[in-house]
Specification:
Length: 180
C-alpha cells in the first residue's frame, strides 16, 4: 500500500509530479524506463522507506531483500512486451497492466498505479484492465526528449512552469498536469 500511495501522490502533488514526470517522459517503456527516475525523486521516495522498516520492525537484511525484489519487479513491469497473464492479469502487476499507466490515451491517465498487486487499484478506483492485445502509445503529451543536461534540470524547469502557471504567466507543458 505504501508504494501505491507514494506513486499516486507523485502524480497528484505538483512538486512531486515535477520530479516523477521525468520517468513518464520516456516514449518507450523498457526495463531501463523502470530505473529512469530523476535523482531527486529517488532521494524523496527513499526518504520514506525507513519509516516502513521501523513500523514493521524489519532487520536491515530484510529491508535489503525487499528493496532488491521490488527493484527487479519494477524493471520487469516496464518490459516493452505484449505480455499478459491472461485472467491472472488482475492479480499481479505485469508489463501489460503497467503500460496502461504510461499510456498517452486520455482514459488511461492516472490509472494503474500499483507496484505489485493490482488489487490496490481496484480498491481505490484507479484500475483499468487492459484488453488482451492492448498496446497503447506511451510517453507524455506533448512529447519531450530530454538530453543529459535537461534531465538534470528537469524538476527545476517544471517547478518554474508551475510557479508561472499559478501567476498566469504561462502553462505547464508536458504530460499529465496535476491540479494547482
Amino acid at each position: 500500500m505504501y508504494k501505491y500511495w507514494l506513486h499516486r501522490l507523485s502524480h497528484v502533488i505538483p512538486l512531486l509530479w515535477a520530479l516523477h514526470s521525468f520517468h513518464h517522459s520516456a516514449e518507450s517503456v523498457t526495463i531501463i524506463t523502470g530505473a529512469r527516475h530523476h535523482w531527486l525523486s529517488l532521494a524523496v521516495n527513499t526518504a520514506f522507506f525507513p519509516l516502513m522498516a521501523i513500523l514493521f520492525t524489519l532487520s536491515p537484511g530484510s529491508v535489503l531483500v525487499v528493496q532488491v525484489i521490488f527493484s527487479i519487479f519494477e524493471g520487469c513491469i516496464h518490459l516493452n512486451y505484449r505480455l499478459s497473464f491472461g485472467r491472472f492479469t488482475v492479480m499481479l502487476n505485469n508489463p501489460q497492466w503497467h503500460r496502461i499507466h504510461h499510456s498517452t490515451k486520455p482514459g488511461h491517465i492516472d490509472k494503474n498505479y500499483a507496484a505489485l498487486l493490482p488489487l490496490m487499484d481496484f480498491i481505490f478506483g484507479t484500475a483499468v484492465v487492459p484488453a488482451r492485445d492492448e498496446f497503447p502509445p506511451t510517453g507524455m503529451v506533448p512529447s519531450e526528449r530530454p538530453d543529459f543536461l535537461e534531465g538534470l534540470l528537469w524538476p527545476l524547469r517544471r517547478w518554474v512552469q508551475l510557479i508561472r502557471a499559478r501567476r498566469g504567466v504561462g502553462s505547464v507543458a508536458g504530460g499529465v498536469t496535476p491540479p494547482l
